[in-house]
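Sequence in, structure out.
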Amino acid sequence: MKLGYVILYVPSIPDAVDFYERAFGLTCRLQSVEGNMGYAEMETGSTVLSFATEELARSHGFDFRATRPDVDSPSFEVAFVTDDVQAAFDKAIAAGATSASEPTQKEWGQTVSYVRDIHGYLVEICSPMTPLQ
């Protein structure tokens, strides 16, 4: 097995795609929206970041807690790796993300920051991990 997709349930596919393009420089490779049912995939490397409308998720027959910016973040994060964490953090904030944690140099040598996207999901923006010595 390999991880193929991470799917975030969102109220609006076009809003999610637009935000992730502007905030993180991702490219949408597939988008299909019909009424309140929709799905999109973003280019991110070997694992695909996807969005499904909340209504599409409910159509699969299970319940979930909708993520919103005015409630606590869910107990997971999406992480993007970059060589310039501060610039990426600033770009995300300018695109409408809210700061959860400013870029910080960690004791293991990695720079880590967190933002919340327009729907309330926690997004880590970090530098690559370096092997411990």
